[in-house]
Amino acid sequence: MILIAASEFRKNQKKYFQLALTEKIGVKSGDVVFEITPSRELFVNPSPSGDPFWDDPRNVEELNRRIDELKSGKSTLTPYSAEEFKRRFGL
After folding, report:
1. How does pLDDT run across 30-88, given as a tens digit for each residue?
2. Quick one: pLDDT at residue 34?
3. Taking the model in full, what pTM does it have?
4. What is the secondary structure of 20-75 as a DSSP string?
5. Residues 27, 10: Cα–Cα separation, whole Å
């Protein structure tokens, strides 16, 4: 791992981004080290509470698949109206 100071990273960002494609790069800021990790996509947990169930992208993909099915009319599920939901669940 190549460890550099935050000031060095700021001065030569392009150099270190390119280098991160083949080397591990750590940027030291105070007493913390940030590792630069290249990726083609970024996955962010969509849960406002940070529920770890949503850390798995497969769970998000499945939910999106089911939503698309409902929107396109291909689903056998029928979404409840707010009134029907309340009635069914005693709310």
Report:
1. 999 999 999 888 888 889 998 999 999 899 999 999 889 888 988 877 778 889 888 98
2. 97
3. 0.51
4. TTTS-EEEEETTEEEEE---S-------TT--GGGGSHHHHHHHHHHHHHHHHT--
5. 10
Beta bridge partners of 27: 4, 34
Residue with tokens 């392009």: 14
Q: Determine contact, residues 49/55, Cβ cutoff 8 Å.
A: no
Give the H or E element holding residue 3. strand 2-5
Q: Name the pairing type of β-strands 32-36 and 2-5.
A: unpaired
Residues in CB range of 36: below 8 A, 6 or more apart: 16, 17, 20, 25, 26, 27
Answer yes or no: are the C-beta atoms of 38 and 20 closer than 8 Å: yes
